Amino acid sequence: MHFADVQQGTLYLVATPIGNLGDITLRALHTLRNVDVIFCEDTRVSNHLLKVYGIQASLHAYHDHSNASERHHILKRLKEGQSVALLSDAGTPLISDPGYKVVVDCYEENIPVTLVPGACALIHGLVISGLPPDQFYFGGFLPLKDKDRREKLRMLSCLPASLIFYETGPKLLKTLLDLNEFFEDRLLAVTRELTKKFEAVHRGKVSELLTHYTQKGPPKGELVLVLQGQTGSQEHPPLNRDLCKKMLEKMSVKDTADILSHLFGQSKNSIYQDLLKIKNED
To answer: For the whole model, what pTM was predicted?
Structure first.
């Protein structure tokens, strides 16, 4: 099988397995064998993957705590004509993982960026959840602060799309308590051990799963939660006045209503009337 040559001065975002090492793609292996240098979230994790496939490479760490000087080091190598691969510990880079700022810096410097696609936990969880995959919203990890987390869930409660979140076992019960307040009777799929031998999907109403995990204890490891979106008619949640005022500084009431109506899946007329009230407050 022929693969295109690795291009010099190009940043390659390479997806890696999320559990089953057999899920890495042939193109990913070709890229990792031929780039000049690899930056990864945890050198120990990536070194294990490379050893399994007999790849010897120069590994350097780039993670959440990396600073601007480390990003500049990556750009310096790219400007010198080196080919660079960027990996996360598992899955597709940038999806709730480091790398976004590196990509932005590359575009500002006219450095080519490409993705070598592969496993992605949010897509895997959605596809096996048994919930509608035609429209979905990915919320990553919910905010740690109670007030911020509840505000986000409140705003998402009217979205007519499946909602996807990442969570960890130890924090599941706390998250389920908040979900139960806003989504009590909606279906939820708790997916875990994705691609591994003991991959599992636990489906039920939010209230039912809260009871189950309260009695049995939360599962271990990282989870993908897929929650049923809003169905049927429902009033939109109270609008965030500060956010609406900022939007109205840049857009007309009509355009703002169009955006919020699409976001909430609700009548544009009702939102339009609320926006008029907010606009006229001053």
So the answer is: 0.82
